[in-house]
Amino acid sequence: MGDKPIWEQIGSSFVQHYYQLFDTDRTQLGSIYVSICLSVLSTLMQGHWQKSSLPFTKIAHSITAQDHQPTPDSCILSMVVGQLKADDDPIMGFHQSFILKNINEAWVCTNDMFRLALHNFG
Amino acid sequence: MAEKPMWEQIGSGFVQHYYQQFDTDRVKLSDLYTDASCLTWEGEGFQGKNAIMTKLSSLPFQSIQHSITAQDHHPTPDSCVMSMVMGQLKADQDQVMGFQQVFLLKNVDNKWVCTNDMFRLALHNFGA
């Protein structure tokens, strides 16, 4: 079995690390962002953003699938499809995408987009 | 009403054009890709315009309709535009399914092209 391409190794490590931090102590997520461009449920905020202000006490993410690609400018684009459970709410699907960039030999997240998989049926 | 930021105009313009083309005549999507483009379709990778177009042209449905539920657009550090789309689609007589797609757009010779494209159906294995 061949080695995974480097962008898959970096992307999948980031994804694993991200959700592990998110689910255990999301106040620590700050270190992975740099001048972020973050949109959550269509709110676009630039700069450091405290994910600790999200309105749940506990959260568990389960990754269904993830894809990683190298970009022309030597970044990594990652897409995650999964499910999550916050507190005692029902399980919901979510979509998240990240762009990772190597800055000073550390891979940081420059772009992060998250959406719950909610559609208006009808 | 304030104007939308440039990256939103570019991203939403691209997204509208992409799905319109996809649903009417997806062979014409080739204009949007270059030899440096990558597509990941349901976990399978395709490199370059020709491989991408072969895959898209060979998808096993006669008719397809996409409906966009939500889209988000960001500027990236390297002056690209990142777009994420969440929606539903219906192929032939199949049931409606959710999907997710992400695009990275780059300005090459004054034209916005798609260098990265990832598509997945929103299917989960509901486990115990």
Automatic annotation (TrEMBL), chain A:
<dbReference type="InterPro" id="IPR045875">
    <property type="entry name" value="NTF2"/>
</dbReference>
<dbReference type="GO" id="GO:0051028">
    <property type="term" value="P:mRNA transport"/>
</dbReference>
<dbReference type="GO" id="GO:0005737">
    <property type="term" value="C:cytoplasm"/>
</dbReference>
<dbReference type="InterPro" id="IPR018222">
    <property type="entry name" value="Nuclear_transport_factor_2_euk"/>
</dbReference>
<keyword id="KW-0813">Transport</keyword>
<dbReference type="GO" id="GO:0006606">
    <property type="term" value="P:protein import into nucleus"/>
</dbReference>
<dbReference type="GO" id="GO:0005634">
    <property type="term" value="C:nucleus"/>
</dbReference>
<dbReference type="Pfam" id="PF02136">
    <property type="entry name" value="NTF2"/>
</dbReference>
<protein>
    <recommendedName>
        <fullName>Nuclear transport factor 2</fullName>
    </recommendedName>
</protein>
<comment type="function">
    <text>Has a role in nuclear-cytoplasmic transport of proteins and mRNAs.</text>
</comment>
<dbReference type="InterPro" id="IPR002075">
    <property type="entry name" value="NTF2_dom"/>
</dbReference>
<keyword id="KW-0963">Cytoplasm</keyword>
<keyword id="KW-0653">Protein transport</keyword>
<keyword id="KW-0539">Nucleus</keyword>
<dbReference type="InterPro" id="IPR032710">
    <property type="entry name" value="NTF2-like_dom_sf"/>
</dbReference>
<feature type="domain" description="NTF2">
    <location>
        <begin position="10"/>
        <end position="116"/>
    </location>
</feature>
From TrEMBL, chain B:
<keyword id="KW-0653">Protein transport</keyword>
<feature type="domain" description="NTF2">
    <location>
        <begin position="10"/>
        <end position="121"/>
    </location>
</feature>
<dbReference type="GO" id="GO:0006606">
    <property type="term" value="P:protein import into nucleus"/>
</dbReference>
<comment type="function">
    <text>Has a role in nuclear-cytoplasmic transport of proteins and mRNAs.</text>
</comment>
<dbReference type="InterPro" id="IPR002075">
    <property type="entry name" value="NTF2_dom"/>
</dbReference>
<dbReference type="InterPro" id="IPR032710">
    <property type="entry name" value="NTF2-like_dom_sf"/>
</dbReference>
<dbReference type="GO" id="GO:0005737">
    <property type="term" value="C:cytoplasm"/>
</dbReference>
<dbReference type="Pfam" id="PF02136">
    <property type="entry name" value="NTF2"/>
</dbReference>
<keyword id="KW-0539">Nucleus</keyword>
<keyword id="KW-0813">Transport</keyword>
<protein>
    <recommendedName>
        <fullName>Nuclear transport factor 2</fullName>
    </recommendedName>
</protein>
<dbReference type="GO" id="GO:0005634">
    <property type="term" value="C:nucleus"/>
</dbReference>
<dbReference type="GO" id="GO:0051028">
    <property type="term" value="P:mRNA transport"/>
</dbReference>
<dbReference type="InterPro" id="IPR045875">
    <property type="entry name" value="NTF2"/>
</dbReference>
<keyword id="KW-0963">Cytoplasm</keyword>
<dbReference type="InterPro" id="IPR018222">
    <property type="entry name" value="Nuclear_transport_factor_2_euk"/>
</dbReference>
